[in-house]
Amino acid sequence: MFRFAQHDSLVYIVSSRKSRGVILLFLGWVALLAAVQAQPDSLEQLANDFWAWRAKHAPFTADDVNRIERLGGMRDWSRTSIERRRKDLAGFEARWKKLNPAQWPLPKQVDYKLIGSVLARVRWELEVNPRWKRDPNFYIEQTLTALAEALTIPAPYDDARSREILTRIENIPSILQQGSENLDKPPAPFATVAAQNLDGIRDRLRTMASALVGLTTLKPQELNAVHAGRTPGDGTTGMGSGGRV
Q: Model's pTM, two decimal places?
């Protein structure tokens, strides 16, 4: 009987030690996680987060200086999306202002200023010079310039690139619709320039679609969306004075 009692005590001691070990391991993991979460934001993390966001949301432009590597997929210029951009920007600005670069090495202080500069550019695009609600040419850039940019890589195009080309083609009607809803009395000169930029665009798009049949993995019926659906310059986009370009 003494042996059974001794055995039970030994089992109890070993079991207790294992339990304490598991509890200590769990508490250590929780403490480590809390420490990581409590670490102050870094310039490097802010920069990584911002540029990942920028690659998804930066407007297309005809200026090669601003060209960046972008994520694929559909683009959204609805009012809801623009308000979301504003909120995201405010979050980045708040994180930037909380950083204290006073004791940083000079090169890192320069990087801090550069991040501040690019944040200011986004603020300029959204609010100071909001082309998205004043200039019909902005939506030409979000559709035709975006498509042209996808074609800058020399052909032939693999399946991934072909799908991205098709995505940008299919994105045209929704962006034009959003443009017609966003534009608020665009100045007549802007509308005139947009109309000039779209002169002969339907024929040019048909020519492009025919050429892409042999250069992409897309089927002819998929590329028919270029001229079968609503495209810039067909008089239904509402992007200009009087509801037409």
A: 0.75
Which ranges of 99-133 would DSSP assign to H, the alpha helix?
106-123
In Å, how far from its chain's centre is CA 143?
15
CB neighbour list of residue 130: distance below 8 Å, 6 or more residues apart: none
pLDDT digit string, tens, across residues 211-220: 898 899 998 8
Alpha-carbon span 155 to 234, nearest angstrom:
29
42 CB-side CA count, 13 A: 8
pLDDT at 4 over 70: no
Per-residue pLDDT of 161-188, as tens digits, reads 999 999 999 999 999 999 999 999 899 9
Alpha-helix residue ranges (DSSP H) falling in 183-224: 188-197, 201-212, 220-223
H or E element in which residue 226 lies: helix 225-228
